[in-house]
Amino acid sequence: xxxxxxxxxxxxxxxxxxxxxxxxxxxxxxxxxxxxxxxxxxxxxxxxxxxxxxxxxxxxxxxxxxxxxxxxxxxxxxxxxxxxxxxxxxxxxxxxxxxxxxxxxxxxxxxxxxxxxxxxxxxxxxxxxxxxxxxxxxxxxxxxxxxxxxxxxxxxxxxxxxxxxxxxxxxxxxxxxxxxxxxxxxxxxxxxxxxxxxxxxxxxxxxxxxxxxxxxxxxxxxxxxxxxxxxxxxxxxxxxxxxxxxxxxxxxxxxxxxxxxxxxxxxxxxxxxxxxxxxxxxxxxxxxxxxxxxxxxxxxxxxxxxxxxxxxxxxxxxxxxxxxxxxxxxxxxxxxxxx
Length: 339
Description:
This protein has 339 residues and is mainly α. Helices cover 80% and strands 0% of the residues. The chain has 14 helices and no strands. It has helices at residues 3-34, 39-59, 67-92, 97-120, 126-147, 154-173, 183-187, 195-214, 216-224, 226-231, 236-262, 265-277, 281-306, 310-328.
């Protein structure tokens, strides 16, 4: 390995280590926010608010003192980790469209949740409804793909259009009822991130990272040679289902900030940027997560400083990272090794 290559690897590892520490800090922050009624934790919570006030004072902002901004930023940081993590497998399996499909399925779940809430007065979490519907949609896509003779992307296209159609019908049926307003979920907004939604994203992040680490070799094998994996008696159907379900739960958590329309971008764009520069699958994972963090942090800075929508800002920064990676790349097409 050349000196430049060795330095690059060290920088990547440092970047991943910093990202891991940041992600753990965000999970801890959300835990403190959730447990602030406990006396000891409450004291720490107040100290964090004071620290946030001083940060705002010196930076000339009005961001870090407010707990709802903590939750939004923490959710964004976690999205920047798990979305590219899952997206790396999807992109290499040419399944990028599945993200858009499951986002529309989750949208149908939000619409159903709004309608049920308006009719019955139910005050439960809309994100839980979206999570259940998203997982069911993921299982339906996998079931259709396994049991039909159509081309691989046909079940995905059917589920994409069908779930959005169901969501549209539900919204039209509930028009005029109080609470039927899904615009923030369509375009994304930091105001959508509720305390329960942020905690859900923290749980999703921990579970997805743990499962991905535990099944890394199996998912890698299936990603590059599914037929060989079947010959090796690996339960391909189970791991395919696992990957799609993980995608569904990540999308449900990410759509709070990015919205239905833009959520799939965080599954694809950071990975596309990483693929331009990486020489192995593992390096693609690392670079995708790093680009995801740059997109989230840069998007929040752009959004807050210019009073722009957060979701659109994050995606624009991610696309800028991709274009820079294309210009910096020494090859016209990706050449990724399986390790």
